[in-house]
Design a protein that fits this description.
The chain is mainly β. The chain is built from 3 helices and 21 strands. The strands form 4 sheets. The chain has an 8-stranded mixed sheet with strand order 1-3-6-5-4-7-8-2, with no helix packed on it. Strands 12, 14, 15, 16, 18, 20 and 21 form a 7-stranded antiparallel sheet that branches. Strand 14 and strand 15 form a beta hairpin. It binds zinc ion. Zinc ion (ZN) binds next to strand 12.
């Protein structure tokens, strides 16, 4: 009742009980998506809406409207270990009367067919020495806190750029790693074959959410791009930003190195959307924001 009252005040002329049920049309940039893919969700309503959210596999995404309150768009990430097969996408809308409605979409999740990689690294990084365990635990907590403190406001407005001018190592995303004979969690980013000291630039506008040396990932920067989207940069030899800095696309954030658990100089680039680990190369093909009204 309180919500309805609030909505009435905001909506002005709307009289309770007179809000028509919206006709909702959900369209997806792809009906079948591999593990690690980004799906762009567009919602079209025949009446103006106050807000819309999407839920995919328990992860909530805000759908944002453009100039028209009838067209909304958001990003959904398919986690690199997401269950394969048909998965439902639930859309919930709130009308100007505070009335709630639902719509659904379906994403057919396909296997990413990731490779298995066998690597030999310094023994300390597979089984860290006892003396480093407290630090590693602290690192993990710091990173976990970053994921909880994202800005709701989207900062980017179009496709991302590569953070470094270098080729992508083939099959680097999602590969299952066996380090010194022990299976490890999948590689959640891509490796760019850059040389030591090469500039690493922000691929899009963002806010620096973490900038420090961590045990496994070495010199690490995490950028919060808002609206649930984060990108991470590992193994940096130098960090040129500090937490809280707001960067524009193309601003230098550090230099390529081989710090932490790295077999040689390269840039590890990874991304998360609402907690789903996605292939950051998908960000190079984002549509322009805000969404334009559809006919
Ligand atoms: Zn990597």
């Amino acid at each position: 009742m309180i919500l309805l009252g609030g909505a009435l005040l905001l909506a002005g002329a709307v009289v309770p009980g007179t809000c028509p049920s919206p006709r909702l049309d959900v369209s997806l940039s792809r009906a079948a998506a591999k593990q690690g893919a980004i799906v762009v969700v567009t919602l079209q309503s025949d009446v103006a809406l106050a807000s819309a959210t999407a839920d995919f596999e328990g992860r909530a995404a805000v759908l944002e409207s453009g100039a028209s309150p009838k067209t909304f768009r958001g990003l959904v990430g398919v986690d690199l270990e997401g269950k394969t097969g048909p998965a439902s996408l639930k859309i919930e809308t709130e009308g100007l009367c505070g009335d709630r409605h639902e719509a659904a979409g379906r994403i057919d999740v396909r296997s990413g067919k990731f490779s298995v990689e066998t690597l030999k690294v310094a023994p300390d990084y597979v089984e860290p020495p006892e003396s480093e365990l407290a630090r590693i635990h602290e690192d993990q907590e710091k990173v976990a806190r970053v994921w909880k403190t994202g800005d709701a406001q989207r900062r980017w407005s179009g496709p991302f750029q590569l953070p470094v001018d270098a080729p992508v190592r083939e099959n680097s995303f999602g590969s299952r790693r066996v380090l010194n004979g022990e299976p490890r969690s999948p590689h959640s980013g891509i490796d760019l074959a850059a040389h030591a000291g090469q500039d690493v630039d922000a691929p899009a506008p963002g806010r620096v959410a973490l900038a420090e040396d961590l045990y496994f990932s070495g010199g690490t920067v995490i950028l919060d791009h808002g609206a649930g989207l984060f990108t991470s940069y590992f193994h940096l030899s130098r960090i040129d930003v500090k937490v809280g800095d707001v960067v524009a696309g193309g601003d230098r954030i550090g230099a390529v190195g081989a710090t932490g658990r790295a077999t040689g100089p390269h840039l590890h680039w990874s991304a998360k959307i609402d907690g789903a680990r996605i292939n950051p190369l998908g960000l190079l093909h984002l549509p322009a924001w805000p969404v334009e009204a559809q006919k």
